[in-house]
């Protein structure tokens, strides 16, 4: 039977592995160690003489450890997707969203990049765009890409992604397409209640996510400049790009801090401690851009006036740490930049107060008396 | 500029807290005292069931951050108020706490569970599901304690000043006495608290008895066809639904623990009993105060929520207000308590707003079936007609529209989401059934991708 709301009650806080218990923290440590080995296996090899992930990938016929990672990632999303749908799959929105998101990861995030080299091509990721896939707008990268894909990535990053976000909100990407969001919503779902709802965490997010966006744009700009003037200015070239890929440079610094530490080690490794959207909420530069666009677009969460009982299910299960309840209590339909449109607030609401929608019509909101119980 | 006032508010539920926030919003320097026997923080009473199951923590059901009292300058008194001296304008407390003086007083002391009238109703292992202390008791009986998120802060702070009849007292736990958790709970009372107590027991893996006095579940709101669907759903979840059972007694063992529920139809072994037969205004402590109460114990208030005594107001479950049909009685709903709290807040500030109750509406989730109602449903109006439609497909729903004299006066909807603000507007606009059926989907509040309801005219 198709339903719209949560089917039965959850026992979230009665399950140890989901709650910063010894088991939860041990699991987090395991994930962090995995990412450390994944990103710095050459260092591990230097010190310990073993390269475990490369050995496993070769044994499994997956060519290198990055394909092994892609395969594990897909398995984690499929498993997590099943876990999620067993709990929340009674709603069509949840079923469609999770199915599409997992299918895109398996097809475009793993299978296609894996088989493309078999036909003599490069491995290309159709489901990622700049600034999330930050090197896709570097002039040197664009020059090396096949023309059709270079066009795809430029048009996709600079035009299609923002336009779709105006029409449907950032959720079209963050909750339906993106692999990072997909992992958070499937494999990371058991920990979604752990995302902090405090005002402090909101302030942190506003600073950190825009800081990373600034660094991403500045890095792209400097690398673009380098392709024009790098040859005549060797010092500039050394600082921005470096002589060798392993050298410290602005380019490798961004890859190290943002790509490896923030997205991988912290963003995913700490799911069982800080909730599943640490990366998306606090650091993802693409989420920052789409968030701005979302604020001026059609998407919003509509609040049915006078029906909220302030129970807090919406806020508890918001993986982005939005205090949805504060808007519902105030009878205020709203759009928050960070909202990824997963729909769980509306799903968990026992009174059907919330509804995700795309509309330009804001007229009825103005008629409503704004009586906030929280904001001063 | 008005001289700074001393505001005292009895009760930190939604009515009390809304009033306090309204006052603080306009008067940063007024002295505001919030009194609560039950808890340090304002929390959503409607959410106790989710704390029980482990779906939410105590922190999660508190709408404000925990520094709210300090940040907003609310003085907290955590004690049982035992009387009001309206001459000397002060409130007195149990446990030897100093009385607190007021210039304007708001009584928002809420409801208390109606006690069971049967022999054995106060036995060990018998309780209610209304207060934080009830939650604590029921969790100990069924789960052996709180979830991993823990209990509320300073749970026993009020224990020194408690009296034996307080709704916030801690009950003895039969499971602890027996050394075995409850295995066969029973819930008495076919209303909303009853179905919550049943649902949480199901989530804990038990198959509770559910004793309902009436012919079908929740007859005040549902008709037999609608109620049958809910009962079937409960049965599918493992609930033993017993309709038309009159309770006769709760049997205990030699140690005083409950062991069975006896009804007019049989004896049902049970080791934990939740009585959910309604709530009454929590106003017994006002007996000596000289404030008028009605025969239900509700505090009589005027259109502006003032009691029979000047500068003393009442709001929320404890206040007997005028309903849309002109009668006066307490409204035991979250959103009316919220609205009354906002009106009372403005009264405390010296304004003269009126509490104006519009068309009735409500919504709730019965197990996993969503329910929305608006207007006059099950009121047995003269000449009323009920138009009923059942949708049986991937989406299952029922739609009942009540008409009287050619225009629509009520809606009763199960299985789908509806915007009650549109439904109530149609009732106020006196729309015809034809018109409403043509426009029905304008009131749909279904989540995206859910196919719209297509009604077939009979």
Summarize the structure in words.
The complex is a heterodimer of chains A (376) and B (458). Chain A is an all-alpha fold. Chain A folds into 2 domains: 23-289, no CATH class; 298-367, Alpha-Beta Plaits (2-Layer Sandwich). Helices cover 58% and strands 3% of the residues of chain A. Chain A has helices at 22-39, 41-48, 52-59, 65-88, 92-115, 139-144, 147-168, 171-174, 179-185, 199-229, 234-240, 250-266, 271-274, 278-282, 285-296, 313-316, 324-329, 344-348, 363-367, and strands at 299-303, 354-358. In chain B, helix 1 (14-26) packs parallel to helix 8 (334-348). Chain B has a 5-stranded parallel sheet with strand order 3-2-1-7-19. The longest helix of chain B has 15 residues, at 334-348. Chain B folds into 3 domains: 6-37 and 78-112 and 280-348, FAD/NAD(P)-binding domain; 115-277, FAD/NAD(P)-binding domain; 361-443, Enolase-like, domain 1 (2-Layer Sandwich), CATH 3.30.390.30. Classes of the chains: A mainly alpha (376), B alpha/beta (458). Chains A and B meet through helix 5, helix 16, helix 17 and strand 2 of A and helix 1, helix 2, helix 6, helix 8 and strand 22 of B.
Poorly predicted spans of chain A: 369-376
Strand content of chain B: 25-35%
Strand order of the largest sheet of chain B: 3-2-1-7-19
Q: Find the count of extended strands of chain B (DSSP E, 2+ residues).
A: 26
Taking the alpha carbons of the first and last residues of chain A, their distance comes to 43 Å
CATH homologous superfamily heading of the largest domain in chain B: FAD/NAD(P)-binding domain
Count structural domains of chain A.
2
Total discrete domains of chain B: 3
Characterize the main sheet of chain A.
2 strands, antiparallel
Strand order, main sheet of chain A: write it out: 1-2
By CATH, the architecture of the largest domain in chain B is named: 3-Layer(bba) Sandwich
Number of strands of chain A: 2
Based on CA atoms alone, the radius of gyration of chain A comes out at 22 Å
The number of helical segments of chain A is 19
Pair with the biggest interface = A-B, 54 and 62 residues
Q: Roughly how many Å apart are the termini of chain B?
A: 64 Å
Shape, principal axes of CA atoms of chain A: globular
**What helical percentage do the residues of chain B reach?**
10-25%
Fraction of residues in β-strands of chain A: under 5%
